[in-house]
Amino acid sequence: MFRDAAMCAIVRGLLALTLALSVLANADVLKSAPPGISFKTPKATHPWTAIKVTNPTHNVQKLRSFRGSKTNSRSVAAILGAHQRQVGGFGYENITTTTAYGTQYATDVIWNGFRTMLLLDTGSSDTWVVQREFFCIDYAGQIVPQIACGFGPTYPGDFQYGPTNPEQHMFIQYGDGEVVTGPMGFSDITVGNITVARQEVCLANTTYWFGNNQTSGLMGLAFPSLTNAYLGTSEDHDPGNQLEYSPLFTSMVNQGKIPPLFSIAIDRNSSSGMLAWGGIPPATGIDHAKTATLDMIITNLIDQPATAYEYSFYTIIPDGWQYDQTTDLKKFPYIVDSGTTLCYLPPNVAEAINEAFQPAAVYLWMYGAYFTSCTAIVPQIAVVLNGIRFYLNPADLIYREMVDPLTGLCMTAIASGGSGPFILGDVFMQSALVVFDVGQAKMRFIPREFY
Ligand SMILES: *[C@@H]1O[C@H](CO)[C@@H](O)[C@H](O)[C@H]1NC(C)=O
Ligand SMILES: *[C@@H]1O[C@H](CO)[C@@H](O)[C@H](O)[C@H]1NC(C)=O
Ligand SMILES: *[C@@H]1O[C@H](CO)[C@@H](O)[C@H](O)[C@H]1NC(C)=O
Ligand SMILES: *[C@@H]1O[C@H](CO)[C@@H](O)[C@H](O)[C@H]1NC(C)=O
Ligand SMILES: *[C@@H]1O[C@H](CO)[C@@H](O)[C@H](O)[C@H]1NC(C)=O
């Protein structure tokens, strides 16, 4: 339906009509959200002309990547399993192992003078570091040795400006069942060259966590509506006690330190990824004429109110996919997620693309993924955003580290996302500089060379 409407609009050359139709089409796509999920569109907070998105900034930080045999299902488990998760009692579920390789990105932060490394998460809003005297607990809520939580160096001090008054605590449960809680207070937080004064943060004192032994907490870059602070010190995480606060990125903007956007460029299999505050990293050999601009949509995962669990992602609606000579322009919402390695597509699109490998990839249900010969010929695959093709790096389309021991076949990068929503993971993000233009409620993508 959309294709015909779009072509009709182009023929008439009516920009206004195109816009109206695309809003209409998006509304239809958004209404068909799978169970446990809802979408909303944030409002632009800054006038259209206020900021030049192409401005390079020197506030650039290196991203460290952690890649290994442990899956990163912090967000993908939330996406694929939100409505299937069983939460009872303290509410933990073991990590699923079906999500292949996970990549996590982290960056250096100075927390009241203490240099620490925090995971970068565009899918949550709270920023926290683990305090020295914390309790590490297991899935059953039993206290286990701190080492089991796998943190890097723990934060030795207290809040620079004291706790919140009245007292508040953070309680967050991530998509894979990890839980972090602790008191809220105020400290200066420095990222790159930018110091955010008196930021409201959490010093985690109880965690159920699967760490990498290097990072000591997490920096959440999503919106105020997704913060998880609650009145009191107790275990009462009743939604009625929730108090929204200004998360790190919002404070940075409100304190006038940067324009309201950040951008991320990740590199394949390396630690040379970049996070730029208030602009884009300088001189990355990109062609701004090719910028694809899409509406930013927030995906919420709705869970049992008892867990007061809320998780959100930056979501877009691509035009569709192209693989070899085939173009598929059916529209679906996709989450742009640096915390997920593969791309998760609607089942029939995933199936069709996997059939284009030679030999054709087959679905192995144990993994929820497709496998083909490790030396297969790969198709040319692009996701089409705003009329621009973003080609996936052919070198990434077959995961040679991920071999099924029974068949000797290798996993492909195009997996089935079930009933959705669907995910554009690292395999896609490596092909673009991604600008989270929060001020204008747009996501912008600029094609990059493969590195
Ligand atoms: C900090 O800012 C200065 C000048 O604005 C710039 O030269 C330098 O590269 C910046 N450093 C970082 C780490 O962003
Ligand atoms: C989770 O994993 C632990 C340790 O491997 C196991 O003992 C427990 O039964 C598992 N729980 C569930 C709900 O699968
Ligand atoms: C953790 O901090 C909360 C305040 O938010 C406090 O009530 C609780 O006793 C602390 N727990 C531990 C184990 O220190
Ligand atoms: C972290 O260190 C512990 C103890 O040395 C080890 O058992 C665990 O495998 C390490 N985890 C990772 C992800 O490296
Ligand atoms: C990643 O880089 C390492 C070291 O440079 C190399 O040994 C490895 O084969 C690379 N992996 C992939 C998937 O390219």
TrEMBL record:
Keywords: Signal. The keyword Amino-acid biosynthesis does not apply. The active site is at D121, D337. SUPFAM superfamilies: Acid proteases. One of its GO terms (biological process) is proteolysis. InterPro entries: Aspartic_peptidase_A1, Pepsin-like_dom, PEPTIDASE_A1, Peptidase_aspartic_dom_sf. GO terms for cellular component: fungal-type vacuole. Residues 105-446 form the Peptidase A1 domain. GO terms for molecular function: aspartic-type endopeptidase activity. Residues 1-20 form the signal peptide. Belongs to the peptidase A1 family. This is Aspartic peptidase domain-containing protein.
